[in-house]
Write a structure and sequence with these properties.
Helices cover about 55% and strands about 0% of the residues. The chain is mainly α and about 160 residues long. Helix 1 runs parallel beside helix 5.
């Protein structure tokens, strides 16, 4: 495998990781509240309108809208884009590290199943750890639970998507 192939895979894993990061945000917000992870769709914390699919692209949607709701222009916390980007970089970085440490073609040396299983295990651990850390952070800041101010419940120091 050439360096170009590794770069393309790293970019692919960055994109996949950013999508997983978006789901990490959903989990960190909804799990402590006993809400479904599937329904309803994400919505603006201010006007409660559903976020359009084209605006719900990890990192890019937040950047294009400059951190604001398309409908009401209310602020959407930068934590969302930061978590999405961090998970994407972690996924890509894990792959780059695995490929670099292999000292050759990791896919041929270890086999596709072994490499992919190792990456999935690492990515799952990263994602679950981050969900747990975000939930603990929100609880420590008093941003979750019945005593938290309504506008800040689970907000990570800003507005949050439900």
């Amino acid at each position: 495998m050439t360096a170009w192939h590794h770069a393309i895979l790293a970019i692919l894993f960055l994109v996949v990781g950013s999508c997983v990061g978006s789901f990490v945000n959903v989990c960190a917000y909804r799990i402590p509240r006993g809400l479904s992870l599937c329904h309803p769709r994400s919505r603006c914390p201010r006007c409660r309108r559903f976020i359009r699919a084209r605006d719900n692209l990890p990192v890019l949607g937040w950047l294009i809208l400059r951190g604001r709701c398309r409908s009401c222009r209310g602020a959407i916390a930068p934590r969302y884009a930061a978590v999405e980007l961090a998970v994407g970089l972690a996924f890509a970085g894990t792959y780059v590290a695995a490929a670099g440490l292999a000292g050759g073609d990791v896919w041929e040396r270890a086999g596709v199943r072994v490499v992919f299983a190792g990456l999935l295990a690492t990515w799952t651990t990263i994602s679950l750890g981050l969900v747990a850390a975000l939930i603990a952070y929100d609880r420590g800041c008093g941003l979750t639970g019945p005593g938290a101010p309504a506008q800040h419940r689970g907000a990570g120091r800003g507005a949050d998507l439900a």
